[in-house]
Amino acid sequence: MITIGVLGLQGAVEEHLNQIKAAGEQAIIVKKPEQLREIDGLIIPGGESTTMRKLMDRYGFMEPVKTFFEGKKPIFGTCAGMVLAANELTGDEEAYLGLMDISVKRNGFGRQRESFEADLSIKGMEDPYKAVFIRAPFADEIGEGVEVLAVYEENVVAAKQDHVLVSAFHPELTGDDRFLQLFIEMVKTSVSKAELKTC
Ligand SMILES: NC(=O)CC[C@H](N)C(=O)O
């Protein structure tokens, strides 16, 4: 069994924990940087990215998360987590963690569409995926090494680069756990690679 940690400073934490447990994996809430040592993969949830980055600074998460990333451990940023993972933010704000070669526009779908659902076609998934968007961002620039997984109205709303996955929507708010399964596969692959190295 693998252990997935959900950054628990702010936002939609509980729903992720429940979905991971329902999928039969171990889930822990990460409130201190030391806990990153106990987990195989990290989810940075949706919420308010400006608040979350302040809290991450306050509790000293910035460098430990980067070390976790450099150690090739998988990270999944959902919604605000996608904003925090980006290399660049479209507009005047400075990017934060810089884990993926994308430029992200916060609240990209505008105020008139605070939240909505959309059926997306996702690369590698057979049936459409009903995605829940809440004040969602999107990626408007994509680097070469980034694999686009889903597009909505010509904007990139899910992507993967090496061991980092991002979605502009909230995969934890639907009964459909195919996005979590995708992340679980990434985590399992990284764990077996790490085991091979230590053999
Ligand atoms: N549901 C969400 O995570 C919203 C993200 C929020 N609009 C932000 O930019 O941080």
UniProtKB/TrEMBL annotation:
Annotated keywords: Glutamine amidotransferase, Hydrolase, Lyase, Pyridoxal phosphate
Residues that hold L-glutamine according to the record: 47-49, 106, 134-135
CC annotations in GO: cytosol; glutaminase complex
EC number: 4.3.3.6, 3.5.1.2
Catalyzed reactions per annotation: L-glutamine + H2O = L-glutamate + NH4(+); aldehydo-D-ribose 5-phosphate + D-glyceraldehyde 3-phosphate + L-glutamine = pyridoxal 5'-phosphate + L-glutamate + phosphate + 3 H2O + H(+)
Name this protein carries in UniProt: Pyridoxal 5'-phosphate synthase subunit PdxT
Gene Ontology biological-process entries: L-glutamine catabolic process; pyridoxal phosphate biosynthetic process; pyridoxine metabolic process
Record family assignment: Belongs to the glutaminase PdxT/SNO family.
Biological pathway: Cofactor biosynthesis; pyridoxal 5'-phosphate biosynthesis
Active site: 79 (nucleophile), 170 (charge relay system), 172 (charge relay system)
Pfam families for this protein: SNO
GO molecular function: glutaminase activity; pyridoxal 5'-phosphate synthase (glutamine hydrolysing) activity
